[in-house]
Amino acid sequence: SRPSRKARSILAAENQIPATVGLTGTLTINAAADADGKPRRPTFQMEAYNGGPMSLAGWRHPVIVDGGGVSMVAEQLPVYVTHELTTENLVGQTARLTVDGGQIRAAGTFTASRETSRPYAQVLDHSANGYKWQCSIGAGVARYEFCEEGKQVTVNGKSYAGPVYVARRIA
Asked: Which pTM value belongs to this model?
């Protein structure tokens, strides 16, 4: 027999998957001077994703991003201090993006100045005072699969028990 309208609605809601994932990691800032004491443009390194399962808003079960399915649109991407993509929040750009063993890392340079960007000045001030910044990146999910409860899936060289989603292709 056919499921009731309510049962069909519940099933449909359970199968709706967000089109994006947001990955959170750590950010390290290097604002040291050159050997001759002249200030240099601060740089950063970020580990945006460690290769393991994440609990994400909109996804019913943990999500693992398959590092083999990550495609970078460019090496140089803008870096914003918040998720509002405005010139006021623009603080720098990446110079290098790498994916290794499922881990996503980026490095780059801050391009803003203390004189014209309050958010940038605040980032540097808090960092100088020992604040440990987090970072996050967003990516579109082009293909995913679901590993059911009681089954296993291998992602990024490790085995995981379901239920879990695996984002096989992101960009």
From this structure: 0.75
